Request: fold
Amino acid sequence: MTDPRRQLGRWGETLAARRLQAAGHRIVERNYRCPAGEMDLVTTIGDQWVFLEVKTRRGDAYGLPEDAITPAKAARLLTIAESYLQAHGLVDVDWRVDLFAIELDASGRLLRTEQIENAVTGW
Reply:
């Protein structure tokens, strides 16, 4: 049986991918893994590469999805994005790291989805 937390995360990633596609993003890769960790979604919109961390929260026990981006997590996300760009020979491209926040109430009703552009910066 699948871990409910992991199942919720996968559901959130699928929802985020659908919303992003509807907004004009092209999904390039899901769950990109490298030694530094994992990036939930890699997309392009126009000429810009967008790396997305998707955070889904049910209820408020763990705070807002935005609260999950600690300084250490932000540094890791930047390293993962840079690893992807290097591994794919993408030099001098415009890119950013966004957060896709999903909030549900305790019963699972969708309350909010929000793409927070440039949620992680460092350059």
Observations:
- The radius of gyration is 14 Å.
- Strands lie at 26-34, 37-45, 48-58, 94-104, 110-120.
- The first helix runs from residue 4 to 22.
